[in-house]
Amino acid sequence: MQMLDAARLILTTTLSDREIGAAASLSKTTVGRYRRIAQTRGLTWAKISPLTPEAVHTLFRRPARGGKTKREPVWEVLHERMAHKGTTLQLLWEEYRREQPHGSLCYSHFAAKYRAYRDSLPSVMRQHHEPGERAFVDYSGLRPFYIDPSTRQKVHAELFVGVLGASSLFFATCTPSQKVPDFIAAHTAMLNYFGGVPRAIVPDNLKSAVVATGKAPKIQRTYADFARHYGTAILPTRPYRPRDKAAVEQAVKFAQQRIVARLHHQTFYSLDELNLAVAKLLVEANERPMVKDGLSRRARFEAIERAVLLPLPPTPYVYAEWVAIPRVPNDYHVAVDGHFYSVPHQLVGAKLDAKLTAEAVDLYTGRRHVAHHARSSRVGAHTTLPAHQTEAHRAQAGRTPEALTEWAKSVGPYTRKFVAQQLGRAQPFLGLPACDGLRALAHAHGHAPVERAAQAAFDLGTPTLNSVKRLLANAAAAPTTPPAPRNSNARRARAFVEDAVC
Q: 40 with 168, same domain?
């Protein structure tokens, strides 16, 4: 999935290798290699998107190879020499390589490592954001609150803030917590407020967004699924680098001044009441003229950013939780929240992923969707689709009074009456063999003959399986050619007998 996400962002966006690496939890070097392979092979996203993960891996993989560790220069000294007038990186590399030609870095590797070292040094850079490129999101440390009517106690809410980099239009809403469901719901509301989707969203490194930090951060799975739904990228900020999200830091400060400070003078008794007040103050804040050019955030947004945002998808994202299924057991039913759902029996032993929404459970192997079930809250119960069963299990599942009754209804009223009589005993299971036999006769002779035979058995007062069998055999043995028609000239056998007596 990481390789597929990287390929999607390489072929559909203008993000740099470093940015794509952060979004896909890969190193920028790996992303650069994928980009070169895509260019060399003329790959497009339209060709790659239908492929399986294995096929995508085959396209982008390279054979493993060993190698000795190369000698590296002292980057601090080299960086100081680069400050001298007339010194170039090419000259420094030639001097470095001259000392030990066979154990030295090639120029491209040397240059890449120097750039990585240089970029790791403390620096201050004025950031410029292209319209529609990025939205920054964060939570405010200063939290509003409402009063619980039952306990009369304060209930603090989390203030979510999102801001577009170019126009500084910002969005704010209160959520019960910073957990993943509330975090995703706030993002969905933010994009609806903007009326479009930026090409990248930049969150802080909270656990609802990033589950592993470092050079290749790992995006929380539901958050990554949200990004795929909206066609955007998640670019977490570097840990302990507040300048990476200076725009949202300013937006949070502005929201605290223009919204939170004014809410403290009002009393609210629910989260909905609190959010109604936040929405009203949000409109006022975005309409307020800015000092630098006299335009409001809303006016700047309408002028430079609305038209370049990506369109919203036809349907909003439905929150889904992902659960890993390490192995499908031998009964091909996997447990999700205590309920057991069937998957195709051929997947026994396979590893699956379950995508859980409020209404449904979808099961995947890789990117392939293998099962869909309505979500059930019955702990310990089973939901089984007949198509997932083996032939033998399907047949056994049909030997229940309910299944036999439904089958009899599809044949006719006398078959239904026969099955009801057999299952109406004091011990219904004693009637199962006769019902199985009747269903076998229907499979062999067809529904209509069995229905006629059952009717005849009831007319004769012998509604038993043997009677139905005998009637079916008699019907099969009876001549199918009708007798020859008689006419007025034909004489009966009695007439010949009478002539002989006379």
A: no
| Pair 346, 467 in one domain | no
Point out the domain boundary residue: 14, 29, 60.
60
As for how many domains the chain has, the answer is 5
Domain that holds residue 368: 321-393
CA distances from 343 to 52, 133, 359, 385 (A): 20, 42, 18, 8
**Residue 331 vs residue 216, higher pLDDT:** 331
DSSP state of 321: E
All residues at 6 or more sequence positions from 458 whose CB lies less than 8 Å from its CB, including other chains: 414, 417, 418
Mean pLDDT for 203-231 is: 83
Distances 348 to 316, 338, 393 between C-alpha atoms, Å:
34, 19, 15
> Where in 327-453 does DSSP place strands (E)?
333-336, 339-342, 352-356, 360-365, 368-374, 382-383
HSE toward the beta carbon, residue 464, CA cutoff 13 A: 5
**Collapsing DSSP states into helix, strand and coil, what is residue 495?**
helix
Q: What is the pLDDT at residue 470? A: 84
Domain assignment of residue 124, yes or no: no
Q: Is residue 409 part of a domain?
A: yes
Does 235 score more than 90 pLDDT? Answer: no
| Nearest alpha-carbon partner for 439 in 465, 462, 457 | 465
pLDDT in tens, 276-312: 999 999 999 899 887 777 789 899 999 999 999 999 9
- Which pLDDT belongs to residue 26? 86
Q: What is the rounded distance in angstroms from the CA atom of residue 340 to the CA atom of residue 377?
A: 10
